[in-house]
Amino acid sequence: MSTTEPQQGMAFYKMHGLGNDFVVFDHRAQATPLAPSLVTAIAHRHMGIGFDQLAIIENRGNADAHLVFLNADGSESAACGNATRCIARHLMNETGKTDLTLTTGRGTLFARDAGDGLTSVNMGHPQLRWDEIPLTHEMDTLILPIDGDPTATGMGNPHCTFFVEDAEAIDLHTRGAEIEHHPLYPERTNVQFASVIGPDHLRMRVWERGVGPTLASGSSSCATAVAAARRGLTGRKVRIDLDGGTLHVEWADDGVWMTGPTMHVATGYFTPEFLDAHR
After folding, report:
1. Is the same domain home to 160 and 223?
2. Measuring CA to CA, which residue among 80, 16, 72, 54 is closest to residue 210?
3. Pair 112, 160 in one domain
4. N or C: which end of the chain has fewer CB within 10 A?
5. For residue 5, what pLDDT is reported?
């Protein structure tokens, strides 16, 4: 699909992974400038299309594709696990391949067809040192000096994971917004609240940096699985039930693999009228 069509405006895909939704632009044939004002206009749930992240597919280097991610507030994110899975499935359908190499701000990621319509992505090794995540100063990342004793993890973006008795009882809007801007996180943070259901089973809710509450988050699921394993709450292979559905995460020797379903909802065009109003 060409990114621009003179008579119709600018083409896009709408996709989601368990309700974590994305607007995707394909810039492999032709790149179109995306002003911050246009990104935030597209993100608006009533006056645009709405998304948790915006993703751009590019040709760069020898990988199958290079992916760039923007949050709904226009800020850039190096990683977005569910968007990576959605785009990987799109590229597999397009090329017939069952294994892909993708580059992102997080680094080189690998994707594969997991069968039964599921897609797996290796999100790389977790970042466990304070300066990798990053935090403001040196500390033990396993238990942070924040009320609730959360764990810090980096997955190409920062995460703060709280293990609670009942994730359903958390006031996600209030607590998530507060922790996103905690002074220990100089780049802000994604926030997760997880309950242990069984030895390899978690229930998790997510506040996403620059977005707010989301139905699912791939990088948050990976960070939570790593944090749970580090704290001895689960093994290294877990089922995570989110508001939008279930992901399976395995912290393997070669990185953190995340597996789940994807959905390509629609292909459409932003009209010249909309684009002109927000350039």
Report:
1. yes
2. 72
3. no
4. C
5. 47
